[in-house]
Amino acid sequence: MKILTAAQTRQLDQATLREQHLLSPELMERAATAFVKWFSSRFAPAEAGEILLLCGPGNNGGDGLAAARLLQRAGYRLRVALLPTEKQSADWQHNRHMLPNSVPVVEIGPARLPKIDPSQLVIDALFGTGLSRPLAGLAAKVVQHLNQAQARVVAIDLPSGLFADAPQPVDSAVVRAQHTVSFGLPKLAFLLPQNAELVGEWQVMDIGLSANFIAEAVTPWHYTDAATVAGQLPPRPKFSHKGTFGHALLLAGSRGKMGAAVLSAGACLRSGVGLLTAHIPGCGYDIFQISQPEAMCLTDKQADFISELPELKPYQAVAIGPGLGQQPASLAVLRQLLKAAAKPLDKTGQPLPLVIDADALNLLGSHRALLKQLPENTVLTPHPKEFERLTEPARDDYHRLELLRDFATEHRCLVVLKGAYTCLATPTGELHFNSTGNAGMATGGSGDVLTGVLLALRAHAQLPAFEAVRLGVYAHGRAGDLAAALTGMAGLVAGDIVRHLGPALAEV
Ligand SMILES: NC(=O)C1=CN([C@@H]2O[C@H](COP(=O)(O)OP(=O)(O)OC[C@H]3O[C@@H](n4cnc5c(N)ncnc54)[C@H](OP(=O)(O)O)[C@@H]3O)[C@@H](O)[C@H]2O)[C@@H](O)CC1
Ligand SMILES: Nc1ncnc2c1ncn2[C@@H]1O[C@H](COP(=O)(O)OP(=O)(O)O)[C@@H](O)[C@H]1O
Ligand SMILES: [K+]
């Protein structure tokens, strides 16, 4: 699914009107109907009490007025407060005329702010994608008044004052919504941690916008949902054997962190790899062999950390990093690996697929000259702190996306910036946000599991690099969701994600 800018969203509305021979009030009616469908599925009229609808001057306000009419017809009680302006949009005026007189309407003024009860439901239809500058004056005052009231707020399309696709100055007035009900496609703003408390829980409703326009729209931003990855995992042919699905090598673990190696290995095995060999420090031999009997195991001459790189010929992909530690000898192994992987090992002429995680990323961050040696399409899986060590501190989440895009294009690699909407950056500068996963996965070892999943999928001969990583990130989050449905979020541990990888991959 694509994510468009606010400007493209307006063009999309226009393209839809042209293509479907609609009048613009008809499209607004679709939006309002979709909003009311969501609203009535969440709040029964009796539970909603008297709703306050705050209405701005543009089409977002127009959506609000149309929704007010439909809500009243559906048995809800509401009053409307209008933000005064010199001009209102044509569709706003149309819906103002359509609003029955039985809905009380008042005009807001500097000395006439609407009374808002903390227990009240408020619908925010002040501003949407047409916001052209940060809110000031009376509009800002209304938003601050609303936020102070601590009422439950449902925003139409966007919390008012929030830009759909760009940061706003700190301290600017933005509605804090508990729910945001948007139309057509998700907005970039919904996916960034800095906006979480403004957007709340969000939902996108289908209003039949032009599929042709969306297909042709050029955007770096994408959203990976179930439809994106459906059918992407190649089926296992009847006569396949363990050699068909690749032999993966995992370099992981150190004293006290053998669990990372065990979790990664388990995830790799549960993600369909044909064979897995782990190279681990001597101290981990019993731990590893007992907990992962399906994997083969090579032990390092060092007891507590990894200091040797095994012969790479047998392997179709290598992952390094989970629980590795940052010993100089392990850094030397990473150096050798980058050098060896860059030289094509087989007749395809492709470099050996690598997945680099955790301490291997920290080693790259403290020896940045090594970044120049990353083979093309290497997968890096930093969380925001690890990413900062590879680049620089970001001013905000939007700046972090810029740094991410620049990093992936400069080093021609696939960077998985982990988080609530994990963002995969590609060598061509695309950013793919993942839709699956939950806060239960914010627990030690979840990232090690992801490394194992990606290792298995990069070892799969029939999966191109980008598709493998996008699919792996999606399946990892989906496994977390399936696990949390059983354990609850607080009770979820990384091993639960491993146990649900099978069903998650079976779904796609
Ligand atoms: N087109 C369609 O058919 C559909 C559209 N849809 C709906 O339309 C919404 C977009 O509508 P929109 O483009 O009219 O913009 P909207 O967000 O209402 O605000 C624009 C108004 O606010 C003003 N304004 C801006 N910034 C301001 C500020 N800081 N402080 C004060 N004023 C400010 C601006 O004035 P100006 O910038 O010209 O000064 C203008 O008057 C979209 O979010 C969705 O809800 C759906 O119904 C689907 C079908
Ligand atoms: N709030 C969240 N919502 C969705 N996924 C999350 C959330 N928090 C963490 N995750 C996922 O869990 C994993 C955590 O990785 P990481 O921070 O490396 O953990 P660890 O180092 O303990 O293994 C990432 O894949 C991340 O996307
Ligand atoms: K709004």
Description:
This protein has 508 residues and is of the alpha/beta class. The chain folds into two domains: 6-219, Rossmann fold, CATH 3.40.50.10260; 245-507, Ribokinase (UDP-N-acetylmuramoyl-L-alanine:D-glutamate ligase, 3-Layer(aba) Sandwich). Helix content is 40%, strand content 15%. It has 19 helices and 17 strands. The chain has helices at 6-19, 24-42, 45-48, 59-73, 90-98, 137-149, 196-199, 211-216, 226-229, 258-269, 285-291, 328-342, 358-366, 384-390, 397-411, 446-459, 465-487, 494-499, 501-507, and strands spanning 50-55, 77-82, 105-107, 121-125, 152-156, 179-183, 201-205, 221-224, 247-251, 275-280, 296-299, 317-320, 354-356, 379-380, 414-417, 423-425, 431-434. The strands form two sheets. The chain has a ten-stranded mixed sheet with strand order 8-17-16-15-14-13-12-9-10-11, sandwiched between helices. Strand 15 (414-417) and strand 16 (423-425) form a beta hairpin. Helix 2 crosses helix 4 and helix 10 crosses helix 16. The chain is elongated. The two termini are 16 Å apart. The mean pLDDT is 97. The structure holds ligand NPW, adenosine-5'-diphosphate (ADP) and potassium ion (K). Potassium ion (K) binds next to strand 4 and strand 5. Residues 225-508 form the YjeF C-terminal domain. GO terms for molecular function: ADP-dependent NAD(P)H-hydrate dehydratase activity; ATP binding; metal ion binding; NAD(P)HX epimerase activity. K(+) binds at residues 60, 124, 160. Its EC number is 4.2.1.136, 5.1.99.6. This is Bifunctional NAD(P)H-hydrate repair enzyme.
